[in-house]
Design a protein that fits this description.
The complex is a heterodimer of chains A (628) and B (86).
Chain A lengths: L1 H17 L7 H20 L6 E8 L6 E8 L2 E7 L2 H8 L4 E7 L3 E11 L5 E9 L5 E8 L5 E6 L4 H13 L3 H14 L1 H4 L2 H13 L3 H12 L6 H17 L3 H11 L4 H13 L3 H7 L6 H13 L3 H11 L7 H20 L3 H9 L8 H14 L17 H11 L6 H17 L8 H17 L2 H31 L5 H8 L30 H4 L3 H24 L5 H53 L5
Parallel strand pairs in A: 1-7
Antiparallel strand pairs in A: 1-4, 2-3, 2-5, 5-6, 7-8
Helix pairs in contact in A: 1-11, 1-13, 2-5, 2-24, 2-25, 4-5, 4-7, 5-7, 7-8, 8-9, 9-10, 9-11, 10-11, 11-12, 13-14, 14-15, 15-16, 15-17, 16-17, 17-19, 17-20, 19-20, 20-21, 20-25, 21-25, 22-24, 24-25
Chain B lengths: L1 H11 L4 H6 L12 H10 L20 H21 L1
Helix pairs in contact in B: 1-3
The chains are: A alpha+beta (628), B mainly alpha (86).
C-alpha cells in the first residue's frame, strides 16, 4: 500500500523538484508590472534629458575603478558615492555606473569632480561644459593619462552602449529593477540600439532576475527566434526561455524551446534532464545529468528516487555527490548535504559503519559540520546495536537508532563491557567538540544532553553531573531568552525589515550587521543571552529570505513610482501606486512579525525537549547518590 | 523517588499551566509526541538507565536553488563580518 502511495505521489514530487519550491508571488508581480508600465508612460510623456542629464561613470581598467567620487554641479555638491569592493570589481570588468539623473537645464554648467582611486592621489577635474544636444548627459571616463597618471575625461554625450554597460552593473549588483529602468531609458534615447539583440538579451535577463517571468520568457523566446542575433546568443536565450517555462510548470513548452535550441551543451542536457525529472522519468534524467556541473540537480534526483522507493539508486547518487568538495561553495555545500543526509539515512537503516564514513566527509567549519559531528557520535554508539527487531516505540519523537542504542545499552541483551566502553568513548570524541559551541544550534543542544548521557553510561558520574549541569544552565538561559523574545514579538514588531533591506540587502560581508557567534556568552557561569540573539539564524530561514527579497523589490518599485510621479499628469497615479506599495510593505512587515512569533515558538518547543532531557539526566544522576 | 524526580523536572519546575504549555509538555493532541509523556512512560515501564537523547533528524527534502544560494550568501556574510571585526 505504502509503495502504491509513493508511486502515486512520486510524479508530483518530481515536478516540484524540477522547479523552485515557491512560485512567484502574483501580487508582487502585479505591482511590479504596474510600476514598470507607469514608468514607461512617464518616459514617453516627459521630454526627458532636456532639463535633466544622465550621469554615467566608466573606468578603463580595474586599477582605475574608483573608491569614491564627488560631483559638484555649478558649485553645489550633487553626488558623493563610495564604491563597495564588488562594485569596483564590476567596474574593472567593463560595467559602468549610472550615478543618477541630475537636474540640469540646457546651457553651460560648471562641473567639478574629485575621484579617489587606489592608484594615486585624488584626481580632480573642473570644466565648463555646454549641455545643448538631446539627450543631455554627463559621461565621466577614467582613463590612463599621459605617463603613468590616470586622467578624467568628460563628455556631454552618453553613448547607448554605456547604458548597456550600466545595466550590466545593476544586474551584477543584484538590482534587476534598476537595470530594467536603465534599459527603458536607453530605449527612449536610442531606439535603434534598443532593437538590437544585446539590448533584448539584457532586458530579458533583467525581467527574469526581477521575477517578471512571463515577460522575460517572451523576451527570451523572441531573441531565440531573432535571425539577426549571433547563434550563441540565440541558443542561450532559448535555454533561458526553457528554464523559465520549466519554472512555471509548462513542461511541454520547455521541451519545445529545447528542441528549437538544437545544440548539445551541458546546460541544455541539464534542462532536458529537468524536463524528464518533472515527468517522473528518473532513468532518462539520470543519464542526461553530467557528473560534474549538475550536482544540485543530481541531489534533487536522489531525493526523488528515494521518495519513489528507489533507495539504492538514490543512495548511490548521494554517495557520488559527497565526493565533490571544494570545487565551488555551492558544489561543496551540496556535497556536505549529501553526506549529512546519507549518514542519517544509513543510521536509520542500521548501517552505522557506513554512516560514520559519510559524516567524516563533511567539511569542517561549514554549516552541516555540527550536525555531522552529532551524527558521527551516534554512528559510533550505534555500532553496539544489532540487527534485531526493536520494541514498539513508546515515543515517536526519538529516532529508531536511539531506541536501538537503548536496547543495546539498557536492555536484557546488553553488549559486553569492552565493546560498550569503546563505543561510548568513540561517541564522546565528536560530541565533546560541540560541548562549548553555540547552543542556538540544534545539533549543539542535542550534544549538550548526549555528552552527560554517554558519561553516565561510562560510569563517570561526577563528570556527567558537571556536563549535565552545564547543559541545564545553557539551555535554561536559552529558554528564558526565547520566552522573553517571544513575549516581546507578540506585543510589537521586533525587526524593521525595510530599514534592514536598505542597509544590508543583498547579503554581503561589508554590510551584514550580524554574526553567528558573537562573544561566547554561553560560556559564562550565568549566561546572559544578548537581546535578539536569534536574529542571525532567523534571517537564514527560507520564508524570511523570501520576504526580505520581496521588500527589496518593493523599494526598487517605489523608486520607479516616484520617478513617474515627476510627470504632472501621472502624479495622481503615482500617489496611488505609492499608497499600494506602502500597504504591501506593511503587509509584508506584519507577515514577518507574525512569523517571528511562530519561529520563536518552534525553537522553544525544540529546545524544551532537550532541556527536559537534560534535567532528567541530572535528576537521575543525583538520585544515584541518595542514601538507600 | 525516581517518579518524583521525573515529575519535578517535567512539570514542577514551572508550575503554571501557561508555562507548561510554553514548555510543550501539556498532554494534548498527539500525546506520544510530547517529551514529558515520553519520560513518564519511560519511568512507568521501569526502564533501567537513561534514554538515548537522539531526537535530531535530517530528512532528505528538495532544495530550492535560490534559497540555497541566499543561505550560502548569508553564511558567507556572517563569516565575513566576523572576520572584519576580528
Amino acid at each position: 500500500m505504502l509503495r502504491f502511495c509513493l508511486r502515486c505521489v512520486a510524479p508530483l514530487l518530481a515536478l516540484s523538484l524540477a522547479q523552485p519550491v515557491a512560485a512567484n508571488d502574483p501580487r508582487l508581480a502585479s505591482i511590479k508590472q504596474h510600476a514598470l508600465a507607469l514608468y514607461t508612460v512617464s518616459l514617453a510623456q516627459r521630454r526627458q534629458f532636456l532639463d535633466h542629464a544622465m550621469v554615467v561613470l566608466a573606468a578603463a581598467d580595474a586599477n582605475l575603478a574608483p573608491q569614491q567620487i564627488k560631483i559638484w554641479i555649478d558649485d553645489e555638491l550633487w553626488a558623493e558615492y563610495r564604491y563597495r569592493p564588488t562594485e569596483r570589481a564590476l567596474l574593472g570588468t567593463g560595467a559602468q555606473h549610472q550615478l543618477g539623473i541630475a537636474p540640469m537645464p540646457q546651457g553651460r554648467h560648471q562641473i567639478k569632480l574629485e575621484v579617489l582611486t587606489a592608484a594615486a592621489d585624488p584626481l580632480v577635474a573642473e570644466q565648463q561644459l555646454s549641455f545643448d544636444a538631446w539627450p543631455l548627459g554627463l559621461y565621466i571616463q577614467l582613463k590612463p593619462g599621459p605617463g603613468a597618471a590616470p586622467a578624467i575625461q568628460l563628455s556631454t554625450r552618453v553613448p547607448g552602449t554605456a547604458l548597456l554597460a550600466a545595466a550590466d552593473f545593476e544586474l551584477g549588483m543584484g538590482q534587476p529593477g534598476k537595470a530594467v529602468t536603465l534599459l527603458q531609458n536607453l530605449a527612449a534615447v536610442d531606439p535603434a540600439l534598443a532593437r538590437q539583440p544585446p539590448y533584448s538579451e539584457r532586458i530579458g535577463r533583467g525581467l527574469r532576475d526581477w521575477g517578471l517571468d512571463v515577460a522575460a520568457e517572451a523576451s527570451m523566446a523572441g531573441l531565440a527566434a531573432n535571425a539577426q542575433a549571433p547563434k550563441a546568443m540565440r541558443q542561450s536565450a532559448g535555454l533561458q526561455a526553457a528554464e523559465l517555462a520549466l519554472e512555471r510548470g509548462a513542461i511541454k513548452q520547455a521541451d519545445d524551446y529545447l528542441i528549437a535550441a538544437n545544440e548539445d551543451s551541458v546546460a541544455r542536457r541539464i534542462l532536458q534532464a529537468r524536463v524528464h525529472l518533472a515527468r517522473g522519468e528518473f532513468a532518462q534524467a539520470g543519464r542526461l545529468l553530467p557528473a560534474s556541473g549538475a550536482q544540485l540537480w543530481r541531489y534533487q534526483l536522489a531525493a526523488a528516487l528515494i521518495v519513489a522507493g528507489q533507495r539504492d539508486a538514490g543512495q548511490a547518487l548521494l554517495q557520488e555527490l559527497m565526493q565533490h568538495q571544494g570545487e565551488s561553495p555551492l558544489i561543496a555545500h551540496v556535497g556536505d548535504l549529501a553526506a549529512l543526509k546519507l549518514g542519517y539515512l544509513w543510521l536509520a537503516e542500521g548501517r552505522p559503519q557506513d554512516a560514520a564514513t559519510a559524516f567524516a566527509r563533511i567539511q569542517p567549519d561549514k554549516s552541516a559540520y555540527q550536525s555531522g559531528l552529532l551524527g558521527a557520535g551516534w554512528a559510533a554508539l550505534a555500532m553496539v546495536t544489532e540487527a534485531r527487531p526493536l520494541p514498539d516505540p513508546t515515543d515517536r519523537i526519538r529516532t529508531d537508532f536511539a531506541r536501538g542504542i537503548d536496547a543495546a545499552l539498557n536492555g536484557a541483551t546488553a553488549v559486553d563491557r569492552p565493546r560498550r566502553i569503546a563505543a561510548l568513548r568513540a561517541a564522546l570524541a565528536p560530541w565533546l567538540e560541540l560541548a562549548d559551541a553555540d547552543p542556538r544550534e540544534v545539533a549543539v543542544q542535542e550534544a549538550l544532553v548526549a555528552i552527560p548521557y554517554a558519561l553516565a553510561q561510562l560510569g563517570a558520574r561526577d563528570k556527567a553531573i558537571e556536563f549535565a549541569d552545564k547543559a541545564v544552565t545553557r539551555l535554561n538561559a536559552m529558554r528564558e531568552h526565547l520566552l522573553a523574545e517571544a513575549s516581546i514579538a507578540r506585543r510589537r514588531s521586533v525587526f524593521d525589515a525595510q530599514d534592514f533591506v536598505a542597509r544590508a540587502w543583498p547579503p554581503h560581508p561589508s554590510t551584514w550587521p550580524f554574526e553567528s557567534s558573537a562573544d561566547g556568552w554561553w560560556l559564562a557561569d550565568k549566561p546572559a543571552v544578548p537581546a535578539q540573539s536569534y536574529l542571525p539564524r532567523w534571517l537564514g530561514d527560507e520564508r524570511v529570505l523570501r520576504e526580505l527579497q520581496a521588500i527589496s523589490t518593493l523599494q526598487e518599485v517605489e523608486a520607479l513610482a516616484v520617478a513617474a510621479g515627476q510627470v504632472p499628469s501621472l502624479a495622481l497615479r503615482s500617489e496611488r501606486l505609492l499608497a499600494d506599495l506602502a500597504a504591501e510593505r506593511q503587509r509584508r512587515q506584519t507577515s514577518l512579525d507574525r512569523y517571528a512569533v511562530i519561529w520563536l515558538r518552534t525553537e522553544l518547543v525544540q529546545l524544551n525537549r532537550y532541556l527536559v532531557l537534560a534535567r532528567f539526566v541530572l535528576a537521575n544522576l543525583y538520585e544515584q547518590d541518595e542514601p538507600r | 523517588m525516581k517518579r518524583l524526580l521525573a515529575a519535578l523536572c517535567v512539570l514542577a519546575f514551572h508550575p503554571s499551566v501557561v508555562a507548561q504549555q510554553e514548555l510543550g509538555m501539556t498532554v494534548t493532541g498527539d500525546e506520544s509526541a510530547e517529551i514529558g509523556l515520553f519520560i513518564a512512560k519511560w519511568m512507568d515501564g521501569g526502564e533501567p538507565g537513561l534514554p538515548a537523547p537522539g531526537l535530531h533528524q535530517e530528512p532528505l527534502l528538495p532544495v530550492d536553488p535560490w534559497v540555497l544560494r541566499q543561505q550560502l550568501a548569508v553564511e558567507a556574510a556572517v563569516r565575513g563580518s566576523r572576520a572584519t571585526r576580528d
